[in-house]
Predict the 3D structure of the following.
Amino acid sequence: MDQIIKILDRLLALHPKEIDLSLGRMHRLLVALGHPERHLPPVIHIAGTNGKGSVTATMRAVLEASGKRCHVYTSPHLVSFNERIRLGTDGKFVSDAMLQDALQRCEEANAGEEITFFEITTAAAFLLFADNPADILLLEVGLGGRLDATNVVDRPLATVITPVSMDHEKFLGDDVADIAAEKAGIIKQGVPVVCAAQEDAALKVIGRQAARNRSSVEVFGQDFVALEDQGRMIFQDDDELIDLPLPVLNGRHQVANAGLALATLKSAGLLPEEAVIADGLKSVNWPGRLQPVTHGPLHDLCPDDAEVWVDGGHNPGAGVSIAEFMGEQEERAPRPLYLVSGMLTTKDPVGFFRPFHGLVRHVGTVPISSTNTARTPEDLADLARCAGLEATPFQSLDAALADVAVCAAKDGEPPRILICGSLYLAGEALARNGTAPR
């Protein structure tokens, strides 16, 4: 692992910017590597603002329940870089030895040329996916779509666009239509597109891009739907109605995500029979997304009867979904809700916090040590106050949780604690608790 960290540090230094959207550098490196992108298993390409990981995880669970071997590429990771690359040969994260070999091959082929970290590590993933057999590759976009390093696959089986909302405006555009145009850049000639429910402006852009490419489009709420009914999930399209168990991932939005995943598999000709789908939905695993923490060193810092959650959502759309879930928990079992939050400078904290107004007792803001682009606790506390929440800055996650314990003791009420605002913070929390993804 130490060698991998050293290589990753060298790769980070190959470009002065963390993000510089372009495909030219990626194509150059792929040529030098012998075009691994031309030797991948059949691909499903996933773009969108929120829900990409959950949709991908659901597709993987259903495909694996049907006996398919799935390569999976996601980003960012929570604790270990290996989490980004799951190999269908054994269904596990890539081993240190295989990852180190692929990274070294890319570093040598790149020969010191300027290239972003995501581009060169995506090339390493393509090497691994090309060199190891699998039935399908679930390929998640890193940022945007049109100029994302993953967008070098000429003809995927299907493309899917999850809900589009405001995020990464500096790189993708200042309104939802511009952002949707970047996401729609993954649409390929004649390849079916499956689309989540979208704002009208986003849907129009996606529809126009699909029409240019003569690609069929299926839209959630128009061509198919998934809904909760009496503790079950109903998936319905023009052909059939399937009665299924609810997804194991928490949150009402996960029903829509599961429906999007099933519609995509059906569009790609990969949807198995009902019993197999049910087995898959029962086994979905996607850490750091409304994940309950019930034991461990971090949990031990909280009151004995505390309810603790971790979520990496970090934009206004995610804030709406998470606040909705916390509101449902409040109706089910009332408790004072405390947020412990850290966020990056590239995010919109006011937009993220605003849906929690009237629901949260207090926000403790904390630094994030695993990135140099995090807001200071003081800055983030000011922005939480702009969203109408009471907030106090702390210099560590432990200190913020200790303060919640003090407040809960004074109130005499068991707290509900949500650690949120960043995947980086979610990763730090899970690592601190000894419950990192495995």
User: Anything to note?
Assistant: The longest helix spans residues 316-332. The chain has a mean pLDDT of 95. The longest strand covers residues 224-229.
